[in-house]
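During data preparation, a discrete fold description was generated, and the record follows.
___
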Amino acid sequence: MRFKNTLYIVLFLVSLSAKASFVLLPMDPETQQNHLKAYGITYWALDKQYKVSWLLNYRGGSFLLPDAPEIRKECQIRGVSFEVLSDGTANGILDEISSPSQNMETVVLEKAPKIAVYTPKGKQPWDDAVTLVLTYAEIPFTPIYDEEVLNDALLLYDWLHLHHEDFTGQYGKFFGAYRNAPWYIEQKKEAEALATKLGYSKVSQEKLAVATKIRNFVIGGGFMFAMCSATDSFDIALSAEGVDICEPMFDGDESDANYQTKIDYNNTFAFKDYILERNPMAYEFSNIDVTNTRRVLPDVDYFSLMEYSAKWDPIPTMLCQNHTQLIKGFMGQTTAFDSDLIKSNVLVMGENKQNGEARYIHGTKGKGMFTYYGGHDPEDYQHKVGDAPTVLDLHPNSPGYRLILNNVLFPAARKKKLKT
């Protein structure tokens, strides 16, 4: 009789195990102990050919994976919270999400996107928030720079991040404060040597050629994500094609007279009608950025994410998935964008309305898409040259960093057929 009872217990446990067919990575604030590494688990599962569903607006944008011992083990190793679900429970969740009355949607993620990060050789991971969070989340990426871009290496990738670069050839407008600093002198010398090696007489000309290749990558169907000064300097470089906007200390000759009147806003991705900053001593490219005019105290510096219809607007919904709609602000050379200077076809997904500034914007260009995110580091309010690196182990649930990782996974989504 005792043997019979033991057998029943074993069979009961086996039957429970057999019913556990899914693993849920919850992304709500109460349950998930490491939001950032949860993205890494999702990417890892896609790379292993597992089918993954992104449950938009369900518990902070949770991920549903098939139940497998190696997935559970990987979650345990990386410290990611997970829940094991039966078929019945999982189907109940999917039914709830599919209800027309719920602002939720299930998006199937098909494959792990190939990721490139445009960044100079020798940069440390903490110099750039995206490089930092990709490394922390254990999502693989390939660093590339001008030589690779000009040799059409972008054809190998689905997703490109632009490091905090100056595409205008003005060396980040650091001249006023750092022109005598050894690192500035060395970086200027290296940039000039690279431009010469690649066959250009000026750094501004070489950077424009790089920006043009990146533009073509997006038009052809690529996804581009840029932060801080890479956002406005990229657009400015495209709009100044054929126009010398660099003063003598940057390129050795005078800028074009009245160059402001020659700027072509039709060439930009996101911005219009901006006025360039002519003063070479000023740490600013134009009035796109509001760093010098904003009046916000650090302890009340927040921006809010817009809410979209998950079923009708899945793209911005994916990009805004988070466990909070209120994100702590952070500064950078380009902190935020003047809302009046954003093109009407560009979507503002995060903004500080009171201050008239956009922090997080998205748009399409040809067959591809781009996202611009203002600021330098979501967990370092006022990052300065030489500051210590951010330790993401101290910020595993950072909502500001989650926005970056939403963009990383976004290209993995299965494209839905349009209803019209």
In short: The two ends are 66 Å apart (CA to CA). The domain at 115-412 is CATH 3.40.50.880 (Rossmann fold).
